[in-house]
Sequence to fold (70 residues):
Amino acid sequence: MYIVLTGINFINLDMFLFNDLFYFLYIYQFMLNFFIGFDRLLSLSKQYMFRIQQKGEARRRKKRRSKIRN
Fold:
């Protein structure tokens, strides 16, 4: 790659690198937020499924107790 480091070409190159850096940081931040959010969503859904499972087991125990008493 041929680069002239004088005058307008240097300014254009500088702006090009700045824009590249800006886009990279923007995409990196977006991906980081997405994956952190996705991981949080997964952990919340696991907690939610665990609570549903616990409620189901409690209902089954309650039914068993009522059958034994009757």
